[in-house]
Amino acid sequence: MSTIETLAAPVEPSPGPVAAYSGKKRGTLQASRLVAPGTLALILIVFSVLSPVIFTVGNLFGILGQVALLALAAIGLTLVVRAGGIDLSIGVALDLGALASAWLIHDGYRAWVAVAGGLLCALAVGAVNALLIVILRIPAFLATLSVWFAGTSVQQLLTGGGAPIYLSAPLVPDGFAVIGRGYFLGIDAAIVNAVSISLVVALLLGITRYGRKLTMAGEQPSAARISGLRTNALIASAYLLCAVIAGFAGVVLAARSNGYVPGSGQAYLMDAIGAVFIGATISRYGRVSVGGTLIGVVIFGLLDNGLNLIGLSFFWQDLARGLVLLSILLAAVVLGRAKSRPATGIFALLRTTKHQALTNTAKGNRK
Amino acid sequence: MTRTRPNALKVLASAMAAATLLTGCSLKEPRPEIAPVVAQSSNPQAEHKLDNVPSLKGKKVGIAAKDILHDYSRVVYQQIQERIKELGGEVIATQAEAKDEKHVSDVENLITQSPDAIVVILGDAQTLTPALAKVDAAGIPLFTIDFQSEYSKNNVTSDNWNVGTTLARTMAEDLHGKGKILVFNGFPGVTPCRIRYNSLNLVLEDYPNIEKITPELQDKYEGTIEDAKNQIQDQLRRLPEGEVDAIWSCWDMPLIGAAQAIDPTGGDIKLYGVDAEPGALDLIANPDSSYQFTVAQPTKQIAAASATNIALFLDGQTDLVPSTSYAEPIFVDKDNVNQVRHDNGI
Amino acid sequence: MSATLVPVDEAPAPGASRTKPRLAAWIGYAGITAVLLLFAFGSPFFLTASNIATILTQASVFGIAGVGLAIVIIAGGDDVLNGGIDLSTGAVAGLAGTVTALAAAAGTPGMVAVLYGVLVATAIGVVNGLSVTLGLRPLLATLATMGVAASLELVFSQNLKIAVTGGFFEAARGSVLFGIPLVAWLMALIGAAVWWVYGKTSWGVNSYAVGQNPTAAQVAGLDPRRYRLASYVLSSALAGLAGTLLVARLSAAVPGIGTQILLDIILVAYMSMIFSRRRLVSVVGTVLAAVFVAALDNGLTLLGVASQWVGAAKGLLILLVLASVTLRGRKNR
């Protein structure tokens, strides 16, 4: 089905629907694309003035270690959002990954069995999502929301009403502990894991044919279908991959915290969504990417760390986070249209809405 | 891509098969046989009462728990159900996932079924009062676990004043009345938590040289351990080395994360919590861990006492039901942790 | 550009499906009736007047906030990533409740205290609306204001519960009119008013238009920004009102209540799709969905379903209803 001829077409004009006009004013959009990295630098500078500790190597690696799990969850989400969907159930996949691996370790299985078991359980969550969204055609938001509800139940049922699993340290095989707590060339294993998964996904999205097809299926579903892509299989694969990556984050979490506590995964959801879309501002097309997502993740990590290091009460921390997020996004939008001519200005204003109009038409046709 | 996937699967399968062979056909890690901790319940108080407890046959008891997120509330929630069933009663159990609004709704939904009694586990007296007034108006006897209500026929609780002050005094005495402590802010909406937090402040009035480091740290219900670990790591970098002498929390969960942040660094910081989470007990039992002290609440006894009181009350023996039944807390430190675990099967 | 994307052979599909809309329109109701019948046969208490009053009371906070969210989705489109969504609604409700409780504790009369709460909520709504009209993705703009509102709530309340007392809040909690609780009347009234505005007036028709196809609406001379700005302001105001009702219900403002209720508000607004033959979010559908979700929790308790199963049962039932609607919709094409 997916032969070379049909592929040739979508590969060339891969830029999304905004490309037509955004291309004209590449120069002005460049400024908005610098907002997220700029903010990152600004936060770093401001905090390093306020606190002498923040710029130390130990602290910087500490931050990376703290955000490694969020990074993994957000990378998974990036795939799904690139495919035009959303996954609110990453926390469930993460928790089930942690649950299965902690359980297997607790029962004395080998490290690789535990890891494989964790990933398989997470894969099951992805399969359910794919089934609901691709085959039953339930809107992704609602489908994954329901999976979230059901997943909470499943965790309680599997753990006798929600009992945590604690692994006493001497019984954990080294091969498992090293995934979350080991050091590789002096670097926290969680960082190494997050970085390697990021690299793989970045390459997958950036240079492989699969990545281009996935982008196409997400941004222009009807066009993708017409040009012969199996959009259903592509979108399903995004949910599966996302769940597996979230499940891997769960395995890392279990190894890192020496056990499993029900309902830990959902804590990462909101930050992951935020990071993914902050990342979208660095793209000329407002497209999510692994690099952008990582910038978003590090912004959140730096903010949390910095606000703790300057000793700000937690009462104010969310306010600071919210304001930073809002200003990044506003700056990106305002810079994106400030220097452009009035005519394109309106289009820039409608950047999201126009894109949405296209997907809406596409959806309407599908029925 | 679609064409390559079967190949990938094959590779994966053969890799797994190969790995199985390499590891000697066993999926299990070779591990020295360890004698399992004998999970025997030697709570004479909990056992002997059952004989003279009237039956709950034909009675329906509604249960509304605030949450089952930590060991204490979960065990009480499960134990009371079992105990009521043992006594021949029927149970309708709800839990509110730590949501205040749902807790109120749960109580309302229970009233509808006009059960013979309603038990509310944990929760907030203020937000529940309107719903509890309805329980009272409907003529359903109300029983509570771990919070005081004017409508409650009987409240079974740990003596949280005792727990709170003992926790705080133990910490203050261990510090020899001098030092700086980090405090997790806790959940002011949860009664036992609030009492313990206020007890800390009360005790510290007598120890002017013990200083709470500001700001206090945020407690979270979700992802508690990882979050607390990150917060403590940050605080340790913010504060000069050796500045923190102890960390206090009204429950064990955040301190498990704190211990994970502190223990690898070998810092001399002492941790004090409540609830005797198995994870916390593991740490206390480890002589190298910074975790010093927790308080075990006799969850089985609490549940059993509540069920007994319900049975007595419904049997008409109301004079045998006190307004409050206190359960003796068990204080756990590094010296007695193994003994306590053995005695109580936790 | 968009024209080239519409494949010719599929273009008439939406029009064609209009020829037999009747069955599809009722399938959502049928699914829900089946569930409710199950409860009614399963428990003798389900259909008692007092239980129905209980369900309506439980639904009203989510119904009112949900109607606000429904307006946002109507004017912004139901594409979650780029369309209208208000994640701040829960936190705004919490903030408004805290402000109201603080004002009431300081001696402000109840009605005025509620007004303060709603005003603060509306202010957040203005920020949301302006951000979105400036071109921010609603998902992100409201994610940011969610943090802001939640944090302000902590700052104002010092993370402490604030009790409210007094006749006004007791009346808001306990009053019953013709056997139906006051708050349920309020939900019905708001639902009816918003339904009239968004179903019967040109403002409403235009709002649907800018939500469904902003490009076309723009060409037709409508300015989407007006309708969107208004939708966020209204949404926050309604969330604020819901927040003060929640304070009355709980007789206290509880810190962090916003995150506890957010998910159910979103669920209720999106569930309204099952009451629409074209699978659009609707106001009346939102009120019905709020009642249905409350009835679901209530019914599962009445049937004595163990609490570990409630989440799974809830998720499955919602999926079942959704799937029946979507499958039905596909057969119709």
Précis, in short:
By secondary structure, chain B is of the alpha/beta class. Chain B is built from 12 helices and 12 strands.
SSE topology:
The complex is a heterotrimer of chains A (367), B (346) and C (333).
Chain A: H1 4-11, H2 19-22, H3 26-33, H4 35-50, H5 57-82, H6 90-106, H7 111-135, H8 140-158, E1 165-166, H9 174-181, E2 183-184, E3 187-188, H10 189-206, H11 209-219, H12 221-226, H13 231-257, E4 259-260, H14 269-280, H15 290-309, H16 314-338, H17 342-349, H18 351-366
Antiparallel strand pairs in A: 1-4, 2-3
Chain B: H1 4-22, H2 44-48, E1 60-65, H3 71-86, E2 90-95, H4 100-112, E3 117-121, H5 125-137, E4 142-145, E5 152-158, H6 160-174, E6 179-183, H7 191-204, E7 210-212, H8 224-238, E8 246-248, H9 253-262, E9 270-272, H10 278-285, E10 291-296, H11 299-314, E11 324-327, E12 330-333, H12 337-344
Parallel strand pairs in B: 1-2, 1-3, 3-4, 4-5, 5-11, 6-7, 6-8, 8-9, 9-10
Antiparallel strand pairs in B: 10-12
Chain C: H1 2-5, H2 13-17, H3 22-42, H4 49-76, H5 89-105, H6 110-133, H7 138-157, E1 162-163, H8 167-174, E2 176-177, E3 180-181, H9 182-200, H10 202-212, H11 214-219, H12 224-250, E4 252-253, H13 257-271, H14 283-302, H15 307-331
Antiparallel strand pairs in C: 1-4, 2-3
Q: Low-confidence segments of chain B, ≥5 residues, pLDDT <50?
A: 1-6, 33-49
Provide the domain count of chain B: 2
Quaternary structure type:
heterotrimer
The number of helical elements of chain B comes to 12
Residue share in helix of chain C:
over 70%
Taking the sheet with the most strands of chain B, its summary is: 6 strands, parallel
Structural class of chain B: alpha/beta
Sheet with the most strands: spatial strand order of chain C:
1-4
Please count the beta strands of chain C (DSSP E, at least 2 residues each): 4
Tell me the name of the CATH homologous superfamily of the largest domain in chain B: Response regulator
Could you please describe the fold and organization of this structure?
The complex is a heterotrimer of chains A (367), B (346) and C (333). Chain A contains 18 helices and four strands. Chain A is mainly α. Residues 1-28 and 339-367 of chain A have low confidence and may be disordered. Chain B contains twelve helices and twelve strands. The longest helix of chain B is centred in the first third of the chain and has 19 residues, at 4-22. Chain B is elongated, with a radius of gyration of 24 Å. Chain C has a domain at 60-260. Chain C has 15 helices and four strands. Chain C has a two-stranded antiparallel ribbon. Chain C has a two-stranded antiparallel sheet with strand order 2-3. In chain C, helix 6 (110-133) packs antiparallel against helix 12 (224-250). The chains are: A mainly alpha (367), B alpha/beta (346), C mainly alpha (333). At the A-C interface, helix 8, helix 12, helix 14, helix 16 and helix 18 of A face helix 2, helix 7, helix 11, helix 13 and helix 15 of C.
